Amino acid sequence: MLLRPFAAARPLSHLLRKPRIAPTLTQVRYLTQADIDDPDMNGGYPSPPPQKRQFRDPYADWWDKQERRNFGEPVHEDHDILGMLSPHEYTHFTTGRAFFLMGYRPSAQRTFEGGLDRELGGVGAVLAPSHEEAGD
């Protein structure tokens, strides 16, 4: 019963033949009047300027307070990059000021009366028992 499918199977010589490549027609695309009228190819949707929502006035009277936009205002096509939930731009320090602050030490060194050794217990301090001594 199992030998019948193997006996009727095609020999593998057909895999050794080179495939015949059928000739294809090249597609030539011409500009249409619609492409000229709508260069962004977005169906005539208005393209607002690319401005991050982070830099808009936070105290303005926005319809959507979190996204800082008004009702019906068109959204930029890169809204996922320009929206409020995108990573914020770091604008606290410029590069020059950051390099200047790297060498600056704003904190004062802390000193301990009698030294740090005495503050941490000194030579005669009672040490905490280890796990072996505690019986665990």
Compressed to H and E, one letter per element, the order equals: HHHHHH
Number of E-type strands: 0
Query: What amount of the residues lies in strands?
Result: under 5%
Distance between the termini: 71 Å
Radius of gyration: 37 Å
Task: List unreliable stretches of 5+ residues.
Answer: none
Shape, principal axes of CA atoms:
flat
Most strands sheet? none
Number of helices: 6
**Helical residue percent band:** 10-25%
Helices and strands: which structural class?
A: mainly alpha
Overall pLDDT confidence? 77
Summarize, please.
With 136 residues, the chain is mostly helical. The protein is built from six helices and no strands. The mean pLDDT is 77.
How would you portray this structure in words?
- With 136 residues, the chain is mostly helical.
- The protein contains 6 helices and no strands.
- The longest helix is centred in the C-terminal third of the chain and has 8 residues.
- It is flat.
- The protein starts with a helix and ends with a helix.
Task: Throw out a few tags for this protein.
single chain; 6 helices; 136 residues; mainly alpha; flat
List the helices and strands and how they pair.
Blueprint: H1 3-8, H2 33-37, H3 79-82, H4 95-102, H5 116-119, H6 131-134
